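Supplementary Methods. Inverse-folding protocol.

Structures were first reduced to a C-alpha cell string of length 291. This string, shown here, constituted the complete conditioning input.
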C-alpha cells in the first residue's frame, strides 16, 4: 500500500470517529488539570524576575514588567547558590550510588542465595518503610556527633541512603525474583562465582529497577531540609534547601532572589522528571507484572 493510500485511509478512519460529549468533557478536564499543575512552575519563574512591589501588588500573576535577571546574580553571589548546588549534587549522587549498590547486593543475597534467616532479614528491611525519616532526628544526631560526622557530607549521605534502602529493596525484589535461576547455573558452569554472577548476569538485567531506585533517591535527597539544617550547621556543607531558607531575612525578605534560588533548585528535578518519567512508568509496569 502506497503512502498516499495509507494517509487517506487514516484520514477516513479519523473522520469516521464521532466526537462525543463525554470525550470533550474529559479533554477539557485534562487540559484544566495540566494547566493547574504547570501554573506553579510558571509562577515561580515569573516572580523570580520581579521585585517585591510587582510580586505582591502591581503584577503578581502576569509576566514581569521589567525582567530583573540580576535576581539570579544576587542568588549566586550573595546567596551562594553555586556552592550549595555543588554540595547538594555531591550528597545526592553519593547517596544514589550507595543506595543502588547496597539495595542490589542485599536483594541478591535474599533472593538468589540460600541461607537461614533470609526471609526474616527481608522483613526486617521492610520495617524501614514504616519509620518516618524525621522521627529519628535525635538518635541520629547523637550517633553522628559521637562518631565525629557532623558538619560533613557523610552526615547526610549515610542517613539518606539508609532511609532509601527499604524502598529500593522493595523495588528490586520484584525484578530480581523473576530472573530465571537457569542464568545463574549457566554462569556458574562457565566459571563465575557469586560476585561474577552478580555483576555479569544480575546487574545488567536490573537496569530498569536500578534506574527507578536512582530517580526516587534523587528526589528524596535533593529536596530534604530537616536533616540538612540540623546535621550541617556550618556554612561549608549546606545544601540548596538550607540555602534558600537562609535567603529569608528575619524582618524583611527580597523575594526576587528567593524565587531565583527556588528556580535553580527546581530545574534539576524538572529535567530528571522530563527525561526519565517514562522509565519510571515502564519500571513500575514491569514490576507489577513480575510481582
Amino acid at each position: 500500500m502506497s503512502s498516499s493510500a495509507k494517509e487517506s485511509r487514516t484520514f477516513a478512519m479519523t473522520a469516521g470517529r464521532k466526537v462525543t460529549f463525554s470525550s470533550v468533557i474529559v479533554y477539557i478536564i485534562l487540559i484544566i488539570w495540566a494547566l493547574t499543575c504547570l501554573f506553579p512552575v510558571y509562577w515561580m519563574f515569573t516572580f523570580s524576575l520581579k521585585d517585591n512591589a510587582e510580586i505582591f501588588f502591581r503584577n503578581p500573576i502576569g509576566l514581569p514588567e521589567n525582567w530583573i535577571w540580576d535576581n539570579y546574580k544576587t542568588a549566586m553571589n550573595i546567596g551562594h547558590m553555586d556552592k550549595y548546588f555543588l554540595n547538594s549534587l555531591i550528597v545526592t549522587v553519593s547517596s544514589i550510588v550507595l543506595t543502588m549498590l547496597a539495595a542490589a547486593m542485599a536483594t541478591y543475597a535474599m533472593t538468589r542465595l540460600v541461607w537461614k534467616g533470609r526471609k526474616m532479614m527481608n522483613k526486617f528491611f521492610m520495617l524501614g518503610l514504616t519509620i518516618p525519616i524525621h522521627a529519628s532526628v535525635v538518635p541520629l544526631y547523637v550517633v553522628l556527633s559521637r562518631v565525629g560526622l557532623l558538619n560533613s557530607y557523610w552526615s547526610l549521605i549515610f542517613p539518606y541512603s539508609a532511609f532509601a534502602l527499604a524502598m529500593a529493596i522493595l523495588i528490586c525484589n520484584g525484578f530480581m525474583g523473576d530472573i530465571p535461576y537457569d542464568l545463574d547455573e549457566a554462569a556458574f558452569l562457565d566459571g563465575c562465582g557469586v560476585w561474577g554472577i552478580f555483576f555479569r548476569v544480575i546487574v545488567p538485567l536490573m537496569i530498569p529497577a536500578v534506574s527507578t531506585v536512582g530517580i526516587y533517591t534523587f528526589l528524596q535527597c535533593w529536596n530534604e531540609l530537616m536533616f540538612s539544617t540540623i546535621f550541617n550547621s556550618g556554612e561549608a556543607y549546606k545544601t540548596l534547601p538550607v540555602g534558600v531558607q537562609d535567603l529569608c531575612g528575619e524582618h524583611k525578605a527580597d523575594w526576587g532572589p528567593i524565587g531565583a534560588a527556588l528556580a535553580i533548585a527546581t530545574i534539576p528535578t524538572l529535567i530528571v522528571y522530563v527525561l526519565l518519567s517514562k522509565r519510571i512508568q515502564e519500571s513500575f509496569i514491569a514490576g507489577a507484572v513480575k510481582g
